[in-house]
Automatic annotation (TrEMBL):
Protein name as it appears in the record: Reverse transcriptase domain-containing protein
SUPFAM superfamilies from the UniProt entry: DNA/RNA polymerases
All copies of domain Reverse transcriptase, residue ranges: 1-162
Species this chain originates from: Spinacia oleracea
PANTHER family, alphabetized: REVERSE TRANSCRIPTASE ZINC-BINDING DOMAIN-CONTAINING PROTEIN-RELATED-RELATED (PTHR33116), RNA-DIRECTED DNA POLYMERASE (PTHR33116:SF84)
Length: 504
C-alpha cells in the first residue's frame, strides 16, 4: 500500500522494520520469559501509529473515490452533487450509496479491497446499515447481501445522536445522566459553595462546548440540567431539598451585576444556532454548508429566500432564527476579522440587570473564593440567619447563639453581637484602624470603598473584611450545629493569618 502511494522503498523498509521487530515478553514470578515475536502490529504507544493510521485511511478514501468510475455504483441521491461516498472521524466511518444491490455491493467491494490491503477489518457486530425510501423486500435483500444488521435512527456518531427529527428528552438522557454523575461523586458533598459553583461552571462549560454547539437542544433538557445544577449548588444534592437563596437568572449575570457569570444554556444554544445561520449565509467552506447550498439554497440569497420544504427539524430552526439578525440590523456587528463573535451574540441575546454598588468587593476580591461567596450572600441579606428562617415558618428559637442576648439577624451578626463585634474590633486594631464598629450597611460601604483602591493597606482591609464575615459565619454555624465556639483570640489570629496568606 505504501509503495502504491508512492513512498520510497527505503521509507517503506523502515516502517516494516517497526512492524516486524516487535516482540513481547511476560513476567512470570518476577522473571521475564523468552521473547514472543509478534507477527504484525506496532509496539504499544508507538508514536508512528497515528501516522500509519492516517495513511491507511487515505488509501481507503482513494478506494472509495474510485467508485465514481464504477458503472455498478450509484451515489446516494442526496450525495451526488458533492461526490460524497463517505465521511470519517478517527475510526468511525460512514459510507453512503443508493439503496440498490449493485451499488451497495460495489461499495462493499471497495471496502474489502482496502481491508485486504491493510489488514484492517470492520467489526460487523458494531456496524449497522440504515435504509430509507425502499420496500421491505429490497431492504431485507440488502441486509442479507452484506450481512450487517439493519439499524434505526437516531444512531450515535462520535458520541452524539444523529437524527432528522427533533431531539427528544430520551435522546438527551445520556447528557443528563452524565451531568448528574459528575456532581454526584462522593467528593462533591464536602465542597464549599465556591467549590460547588466551580464544579457547576465546569459541568455547564462542557455542555456548552459540545452539545450546545452542535445541536438545537430542546428547552426542556436545558431546563432540567439547570435545575440539577441549581439544586446541587444550594444543597449539595440533586434533589430539591432547599430553597435557592439567589435565582439562577441572577447567577447568570456578570459579576458586576451581582451574578457569577454562569452561562444560560438556552441562550447559549440560541447563539450557537445563530452562528450556524451566519455560516450558511457566508457560504463557509464546510461540508455541511456546501451540502445545504447544493441541495436547498441553490444560488439564492439565504436571508430572503423562502424556507425550503423537506428540511430536518434542526435546519428549520436555523432558518427560522434568521429573523434575529434582521431585528439586530444585520450580521456585521457580530463578526470580527471573519470570525463570529460568540460572546457578543450571547450578550445581545442575554440582557442583564443594572450594575450593583458592591461589585468591586466581589470582582476584585483577593480573599478566598469560599469567603467571597458568603459575603456575596451577606450583602444581599440572603444568609440563612434565624430571622429569615422564622420568616420561612420554621419553628426555631430565634436567639443569637453567640451571645444568647438578642435575636439573630444579619445586622446583629455583623457586627452588633458582642462576640462578633469584639472580633471585628480586634481585626481593625491589627490593621491599624482605630475606630468604633459601625452598623452593617456602613461597614459594607467602607469595605467597598477600600476595595476600589489598589493600595496595600486598602487591599488588606477588604480581604480582612471578607475573611472576618466568613469566620464569624463559620462560628455561628458551629454554635448552631455543634454547640461549639472558638475563643475570640483564635478566630482573630486565624483571620489575620488568612489575610497575610491571601495578600501575597
Ligand atoms: Zn449575638
Amino acid at each position: 500500500m505504501l509503495s502504491e502511494l508512492g513512498f520510497p522503498m527505503k521509507f517503506v523498509n523502515w516502517v516494516m522494520q517497526c512492524l516486524y521487530s516487535v516482540s513481547y515478553s511476560i513476567l512470570i514470578n518476577g522473571c521475564p520469559t523468552k521473547p514472543i515475536p509478534a507477527k504484525k502490529g506496532l509496539r504499544q504507544g508507538d508514536p508512528i501509529s497515528p501516522y500509519l493510521f492516517a495513511l491507511s485511511m487515505e488509501y481507503l478514501s482513494r478506494c472509495l473515490a474510485a467508485l465514481a468510475e464504477d458503472t455498478n455504483f450509484s451515489y446516494h441521491p442526496r450525495c451526488k452533487k458533492l461526490d460524497l461516498t463517505h465521511m470519517m472521524f478517527a475510526d468511525d466511518l460512514l459510507m453512503f450509496s443508493r439503496a440498490d444491490e449493485g451499488a451497495v455491493k460495489a461499495l462493499f467491494d471497495a471496502f474489502t479491497k482496502f481491508s485486504l490491503a491493510s489488514g484492517l477489518e470492520a467489526n460487523l457486530h458494531k456496524s449497522e446499515v440504515y435504509l430509507a425510501g425502499v420496500s421491505d423486500h429490497v431492504a431485507s435483500n440488502i441486509v442479507s447481501l452484506i450481512g450487517v444488521p439493519q439499524g434505526s435512527f437516531p444512531f450515535r456518531y462520535c458520541g452524539v445522536p444523529l437524527t432528522t427529527r427533533k431531539l427528544s428528552f430520551t435522546d438527551c438522557k445520556p447528557l443528563i445522566d452524565r451531568t448528574v454523575a459528575r456532581i454526584k461523586r462522593w467528593t462533591s458533598q464536602f465542597l464549599s459553595y465556591a467549590g460547588r459553583l466551580q464544579l457547576v461552571k465546569y459541568v455547564l462549560f462542557g455542555i456548552q462546548l459540545y452539545w450546545c454547539q452542535i445541536f438545537v437542544m430542546p428547552k426542556k433538557v436545558m431546563k432540567e440540567i439547570q435545575r440539577i445544577c441549581r439544586c446541587f449548588l444550594w444543597s449539595g444534592a440533586d434533589a430539591d431539598s432547599r430553597k435557592a437563596s439567589i435565582s439562577w437568572e441572577q447567577l447568570c449575570f456578570p459579576k458586576s451585576c451581582g451574578g457569577w457569570n454562569l452561562k444560560d444554556l438556552t441562550v447559549w444554544n440560541k447563539a450557537a444556532v445563530l452562528k450556524h445561520c451566519w455560516a450558511l449565509a457566508l457560504k463557509q467552506d464546510r461540508l455541511w454548508v456546501r451540502w445545504i447550498h447544493a441541495y436547498y439554497i441553490q444560488h439564492r440569497d439565504f436571508w430572503t429566500m423562502p424556507i425550503p420544504n423537506g428540511l430536518t427539524w434542526s435546519l428549520r430552526k436555523i432558518w427560522h432564527n434568521r429573523e434575529v439578525f434582521l431585528q439586530a440590523n444585520g450580521v456585521d456587528q457580530f463578526v470580527q476579522a471573519g470570525k463570529f463573535r460568540f460572546q457578543k451574540m450571547y450578550k445581545f441575546l442575554h440582557p442583564v440587570g443594572a450594575q450593583v454598588g458592591w461589585k468591586r468587593l466581589i470582582c476584585n476580591s483577593h480573599a478566598s473564593p469560599k469567603s467571597t461567596f458568603i459575603v456575596w450572600l451577606a450583602v444581599q441579606n440572603r444568609l440563612a440567619t434565624k430571622d429569615r428562617l422564622i420568616r420561612w415558618h420554621l419553628s426555631i428559637d430565634g436567639t443569637s447563639g453567640l451571645c444568647q442576648l438578642e435575636n439573630e439577624s444579619l445586622e446583629h451578626l455583623f457586627f452588633s453581637c458582642s462576640y462578633s463585634q469584639e472580633i471585628w474590633n480586634q481585626v481593625l486594631l491589627s490593621l491599624g484602624v482605630n475606630r468604633t464598629v459601625l452598623p452593617w450597611q456602613e461597614e459594607v460601604q467602607i469595605a467597598v470603598k477600600k476595595s476600589r483602591s489598589k493600595q496595600k493597606q486598602a487591599c488588606k482591609y477588604s480581604i480582612a473584611f471578607i475573611e472576618s464575615v466568613y469566620c464569624i459565619w463559620l462560628q455561628r454555624n458551629a454554635k448552631v450545629f455543634r454547640d461549639h465556639v472558638d475563643p475570640i483570640e483564635t478566630v482573630v489570629s486565624n483571620i489575620m493569618f488568612n489575610v497575610e496568606c491571601r495578600y501575597q
